[in-house]
Amino acid sequence: MQLKLRNDSLLYAKQQRLWAQGIGAQNDLQNRKLAYEVSQREYNALNNQIQRTRTEFGNQLKIAQNQIQRASVAKQDFTIESKMDGIVYEVAKELGELVLPQQPLAVVGSRDNFIIELLVDERDVSKIALDQKVLIRLDAQKSELFEATITKIAPKVEPRTQTFLVESRFTKAPTRLYMGLSGEANIIIAQKQQALTIPLAYLMNGNKVLTEQGEMLVETGLRSLDKVEVLSALDTATVILKPQ
Questions:
Q1: What does each of the 244 residues of the chain score in pLDDT, given as a tens digit?
Q2: DSSP of 87-129, one letter per residue?
Q3: Contact 82/108 with Cβ under 8 angstroms?
Q4: 22: containing domain
Q5: Alpha helical stretches, state H, the chain
Q6: How many domains does the structure of the chain reveal?
Q7: How far is the CA of 60 from the CAs of 50, 66, 68, 207, in angstroms?
Q8: What is the DSSP letter of 204?
Q9: Which residues pair with 186 in a beta bridge?
Q10: What span, in angstroms and rounded, lies between the C-alpha atoms of 7 and 24?
């Protein structure tokens, strides 16, 4: 349209020059003028339409941007993000179920960095210290012994169980771990060389052993997962029997 307007403008100007020189008919001049004016009106109308379209598209863009912004805010209100990388171990709610404030929605944890929770009797907690070695035998892998170290000791006793919560982390961990596994742990509070020990399964009632001569009272010392130190009454020549 702009090219047509320019062409009609040039033809009209040319016809005006010819008319000024006394060349051509007045009818031709009028036709050129009319063609130029029509092109001018069409150009102006088209230009106005373009401006209106731009304004309309601009308004639609602003509306769309506002909708995106509102949707983004709404997404933040309804999207829950974990503050740590890991895996989801449990989802507490079903799809479509209402989640109220302060209600747990899911359990998220590390893939391979687990905390071992130990319950230590209040009578023994004074012997416990950070960085002590822990020997752990899991119920799911009873044939293997794993090592850990104490990383945290709760500052207060649990009233219901009269125990202290002690946390430790594996230094020698299983190749596969699962949340919630249970087992037995022994915290090494002291070590002794050349101690006389017997299998823990041979100790009766905490202070007796069965020998060929009958039951014998013994004094015990340190103990591990499967052995206990004997301080008196036995020597390396004593034969002890396993209780039935």
A1: 667 767 767 777 777 877 678 787 787 778 888 887 878 888 787 888 889 999 999 999 999 999 888 877 777 777 778 888 888 888 888 888 888 888 888 888 888 788 999 999 888 888 899 999 999 999 988 888 999 999 999 999 999 999 999 999 999 888 888 888 899 998 988 888 888 888 988 999 888 899 888 888 999 988 776 788 899 888 888 888 888 8
A2: EEEEE-S-TT----TT---EEEE-SS--EEEEEEETTTGGG--
A3: yes
A4: 2-76
A5: 2-20, 26-78
A6: 4
A7: 15, 10, 12, 88
A8: B
A9: 135
A10: 19
Residue-level length of the chain: 244
Whole-angstrom CA distances from 68 to 55, 60, 62, 111, 196 are: 20, 12, 10, 35, 76
Cα–Cα distance measured from residue 203 to residue 217, given in angstroms and rounded to the nearest whole number: 10
Give me the CATH number covering residue 147.
2.40.30.170
Query: Is the residue at 100 inside a domain?
Result: yes
β-strand pairing of 133-138 with 146-153: antiparallel
* Residue whose pair of structure tokens reads 């905490």 in the numeric block: 206
Residues 88 and 154 in one domain: no
Two structure tokens written together for 183: 């087992």
